[in-house]
Design goal:
about 25% strand; Amino_acid_metab_prot_put; 4-stranded antiparallel β-sheet; globular; alpha+beta; Lp2179-like_sf; Lp2179-like fold; Cysteine desulfurase; about 110 residues
């Protein structure tokens, strides 16, 4: 999957775009790790009780030029994309996802597309 200017996760109606003034040090402060190719990666558990018990994960990657990104919600092992918005039993995971997204917005990494 290529990096894009805009993105969204399965089931979420909101489209996000990378902020124009995103900085490398901000990504590192938020827990992104920089790979050998320069791509920044973030993986966060969507379990609100423990960061180690991951039924679902939020994954986001930002390309080395800070021009594109991609994000997804996956199963705990990270192999399959899932939609946590259609199941009422995953409300706590949806709340955790919204918390992570709001943190990324507050730190000028992404913004809501209008």
């Amino acid at each position: 999957m290529a990096f894009a200017k805009t993105g969204k996760v399965n089931g979420d109606d909101t489209v996000y775009k990378l902020a124009d003034n995103v900085k490398r040090f901000t990504l590192r402060d938020l827990g992104f790790t920089e790979g050998k190719t320069g791509v920044f990666s973030l993986e966060k558990s969507l379990d609100p009780t423990s960061p180690y018990n991951a039924n679902y994960k939020f994954k986001m990657k930002v390309d080395k030029d800070l021009a594109g990104f991609r994000m997804a919600i996956t199963t705990g092992n990270g192999l399959e994309k899932v939609n946590i918005f259609k199941n009422p039993d995953t409300k706590a995971s949806v709340d955790q996802y919204q918390f992570i997204i709001n943190d990324l917005i507050d730190r000028d990494v992404i913004k809501r597309e209008i």
